[in-house]
Amino acid sequence: MTMEFTDRVSRVEPSATLAISALATELEAEGADIVDLSVGEPDFPTPENIVAAGKDAMDAGHTGYTTSAGILELREAIADKLADDGLEHDSDEIIVTPGAKQALYEVVQALVEDGDEVVLLDPAWVSYEAMVKMAGGDLTRVDLSETDFQLEPALDELAAAVSDETELLVVNSPSNPTGAVYSDAALEGVRDLAVEHDLTVISDEIYKEITYGVEPTSLGTLEGMADRTVTVNGFSKAYSMTGWRLGYFAGPEELIDQAGKLHSHSVSSAVNFVQHAGLEALETEAAVTEMVTAFEERRDLVVDLLAEHDVDVAVPEGAFYMMLPVAEDDQAWCEGAIEDAHVATVPGSAFGTPGYARISYAASEARLEEGIERLAEEGYL
Ligand code: PMP
Ligand code: GLU
């Protein structure tokens, strides 16, 4: 039989980041030695205390369903963490999800419908576009590549892109794929536009804990933003827990009620014992600091190595990505780089910004050195 598929799924492609990482794994299985700088995944094991808490929770029988929004202890601990960031949310304004990706999906599904306009800051993480398209929304994209990926100098462009018709704006600082951390003045500019045009804003803060010498402000703390900001965060990056699938969103209660329906009819809840591990994660500091320090050293290493090859990059202040300026046809550049140099990166066009390749420097110093040397040897730098 021939199945008929919906427009919804036909409108999108599989995640480019995950697809390239799958290709790298496939080539490795065939015996190739691939330096995989594609997927955004910390290369450290999950800290031992968190693993132990997960195992203990399983042994203690935390293996059934939980309340759909997540166990109360975890939502309370998340509320405390958000309070440390200056955000005030009760536990019933928080939904715990299997990964921040699911949180974003539920929020977009709850807010965006056919023909709604959503504004993204480019380059933007691959799944925002797909989520908006699946919801039937239309995208307006503001290019930050002319301003070293900073938002403050591009506020006029953002002002020109938003209007009373805009339903939603997505802000991701520190940013995937650029590593940019937006200044307070930039966020205040976002606030002014959001208030003027009565916009809802998603603040994706999944890299908030991974910064180098700067303290990112949470957008929802700015005056006028509390009742129009949905803050998304998760455990994948800061605690190296990508495969555990744990994230959350916090926002006004009416949004939580609506998105909560999607949550209860789709995933039911996040995994019970994983939520208990999440409680332990929120108490973990030293291991996070160690990972962040390692990422910072790797950032410096990559920036220096690229400079030796006369390649200048916008130096990231957070996350573990940077955008490497490459050929205009970034897709061909990335395909060549993986075939000839056996170095996997993600084309900038997957993030809405051709002419670049994203490097994830969540890899050992030795592999980063090897990767850059190979790119140089094969004529890719
Ligand atoms: N937001 C951004 C900007 C990301 O880079 C990721 C990476 N996976 C996510 C959300 C989702 O993360 P997860 O689902 O693993 O929590
Ligand atoms: N967010 C990570 C990345 O950008 C993981 C892959 C994904 O979820 O798309 O590489």
From TrEMBL:
**Gene Ontology MF terms:** pyridoxal phosphate binding; transaminase activity
Annotated EC: 2.6.1.-
Query: One of this protein's Pfam families, by short name?
Result: Aminotran_1_2
Q: Name the Gene3D superfamilies for this protein.
A: Aspartate Aminotransferase, domain 1, Type I PLP-dependent aspartate aminotransferase-like (Major domain)
Transferase is among the record's keywords? yes
Per UniProt, the keywords (alphabetical) are: Aminotransferase, Pyridoxal phosphate, Transferase
What superkingdom does the record give? Archaea
Q: Which GO terms describe its biological process?
A: amino acid metabolic process
In the UniProt record, does the keyword Cell wall biogenesis/degradation occur? Answer: no
The cofactors it requires, by name, are: pyridoxal 5'-phosphate
Coiled-coil region(s) at which residues?
none
Residues in Aminotransferase class I/classII large domain copies: 33-375
| CDD domains according to UniProt | AAT_like (cd00609)
The UniProt entry, under InterPro entries, shows: Aminotransferase_I/II_large, AspAT/PAT-like, NHTrfase_class1_PyrdxlP-BS, PyrdxlP-dep_Trfase, PyrdxlP-dep_Trfase_major, PyrdxlP-dep_Trfase_small
The entry's family comment says: Belongs to the class-I pyridoxal-phosphate-dependent aminotransferase family.
Q: How does it assemble?
A: Homodimer.
Q: What is this protein called?
A: Aminotransferase
